[in-house]
Amino acid sequence: MLPNRQSRRDFLRTGGVGLLGAVAFRGGTLTLERIRELTLYVGTYTSGKSEGIYVYRMNLETGELTRSNSIKAVNPSFLTIDGSRRYLYAVNEVTNFGGKSSGAVSAFAIHPTTGSLKFLNQQASMGADPCHVIVDRTRRFAFVANYTGGNVSVFPIQRDGCLSPATQVIQHHGSSVKKQQEGPHAHCVILDRSNRYAFASDLGLDKIMIYRFDSRAGKLEPGKEPWVQVRSGAGPRHFTFHP
């Protein structure tokens, strides 16, 4: 990490904010009214006593959470589950991986009945402190936002759920008015419902970057309008589409 650069983790700590990522999963085709229990996956920072990713059962009638199991992982601060509900992907929010200025992204298989996780493989995220991961609708590509690295990476997904090395890294450039905006800080990547466009919010630039997505080649290209500017100093982090 560069001198005087405040990491996302440090910013959350000094601001008195905790970070907890949770993803709910339920196999089968039951409607919500018939489901009595969900499986929740909780991502954490592991600089203290945390083990990594925790698996809980949630009783939908009482709201009670019961810990099922956990799996060791380093700083799995954001999780996502692919459309088949068979695989879970987690960023490993670190500044150094394999001797390089990079974090990592990990793949896990989800047991169809117990919901427990099995580690599959891991790849360098191609930028320090990855903080967001998403899988496209074809389930063939994963996208990672690297906060300190200030870039977005694309990873092909193999048929067995494993991640291949990144095939594309798009580096953002620029800065904005606040101390935490001395350079680009990609914070999340979201695809639209058509799977044709990817949008990446960059806290450091006060922009939401716009990319065309070729789902056959797994390649991002700048959109006709390459970004939208938000209010100076706003620092966009996460967003979502209205249904």
What's the short story on this structure?
The chain has one helix at residues 8-14; strands at residues 21-25, 37-43, 52-59, 65-72, 79-81, 87-92, 104-110, 117-124, 130-135, 141-146, 151-156, 168-171, 186-191, 197-202, 207-214, 219-229. It has 243 residues and is an all-beta fold.
Strands in their spatial order, largest beta sheet: 1-2-3-4
Which residue ranges are poorly predicted, with pLDDT under 50 across at least 5 consecutive positions? 14-19
Q: Give the termini separation.
A: 38 Å
State mean pLDDT (0 to 100 scale): 91
Oligomer: single chain
Query: Which class of secondary structure composition applies to the elements?
Result: mainly beta
Shape: globular
User: From the alpha-carbon coordinates, what is the Rg to the nearest angstrom?
Assistant: 18 Å
Strand content: 35-45%
**Main sheet record:** 4 strands, antiparallel
Helix content: under 10%
SSE order, one letter for each helix or strand: HEEEEEEEEEEEEEEEE
The strand count comes to 16
Number of helices: 1
Describe this structure in words.
The structure is a single chain. It contains one helix and 16 strands. With 243 residues, it is mainly beta. It has a four-stranded antiparallel β-sheet, with no helix packed on it. The chain has a four-stranded antiparallel β-sheet with strand order 5-6-7-8, with no helix packed on it. The protein has a four-stranded antiparallel β-sheet with strand order 9-10-11-12, with no helix packed on it.
